[in-house]
Amino acid sequence: MNDRTKRFWAWWDRFGILAILLAVGLVFLALNPRIVSVSNLTTVLSRSATTGIAAAGMTFAICAGGFDLSVGSILSLVTCVVAMNIPNIGMWPSILLALLVGVLCGVVNGLIITKLHIQTFVATLATQLAFKGAALVYSNGKRVLMSKNKEIKIFSTSSIFGIPVQVILVVAVFVIAYLVYRCTRFGVKTRAIGSNEAAARASGINVDRTLIAVFVVTGLTAACAGVLQSSRLATGSAIIGDGFELDAITSVILGGTALSGGKGNIWGSFIGALLLSLIRSGLNILGVDEAFQKLAIAVVLLFALSISGIKIITQEAAK
Fold it and tell me: What is the pLDDT of residues 86-140, one digit of tens each?
């Protein structure tokens, strides 16, 4: 592999997702300038907050060599917990309870994976159904409206110095996630496990404890996303998070985190969530049917994966 090719792939690793975001933005600018107006881009940024926060946690799970398919059900359960409890104990205690539920769900996932030695895909697919069932039972299978509790809207309608609170929260989450990933032993251990679990175990890393912590992170971020969703929709529902896990995973993959584990891109996941939100917003403004919106997202995802595949082939050929 010559120096020019190496420089290109190094550039792509750092800025590839930004290039895709810019390209999509330019296409929308040509089709309808309103899509990339300041007001709509602010809306895009705000609406990407829910997916983005969950994607921050999902980055750790995928970097560790796994998946968490239960985050959508955790989000649904959290919205039900907030909606059912806020009339009785108030907003902040309800939010705290919801976050604890998210952490507990993460602990359950981690224990099943590490103690029963079940693959993350299968384990979290099972807990996805279990947590959704818990949400259905807890809410009696009904939507729980929070129209009388205006205070919950503070997260979705308020701003600080003109910046929406949702945007501030998602940026704060990603700053914390980046620092944890890059600057802590937990981040180092997560990458080591994703690269080679057997080698990580042989080097003295407590793999089970680290994996449980990873799924606690995904559960907590899913719960934070659920609180934001509760605020935005003023509703709790057992089906509100259906398909949400796919958006989170797609954001992470678009952002450049390796599906094989061992390499994560925290800020790439943030931009991936922005890209999904921009595509949906732009296609909505253009009046495109939802089915074709999913097709467009699939095309972008396949393009990003194809580039990664070409990189691997190029590197293998150079050896």
Answer: 988 989 999 999 999 999 999 999 999 999 999 999 999 999 999 999 999 999 9
**What share of residues in the chain are helix, strand, coil (percent, to 5)?**
80, 5, 20
Task: Confirm whether 57 is domain-assigned.
Answer: yes
CATH number of the domain bearing residue 191: 1.10.3470
Residue at 269 is within a domain: yes
DSSP string, 127-188: HHHHHHHHHHHHTTTS-EE-TT-GGGGHHHH-EETTEEHHHHHHHHHHHHHHHHHHHSHHHH
Q: How far is CA 116 from CA 30, 63, 126, in A?
A: 53, 21, 13
The sign one gets for the Cα dihedral 302, 308, 311, 316 is negative
- How many domains are there within the chain? 1
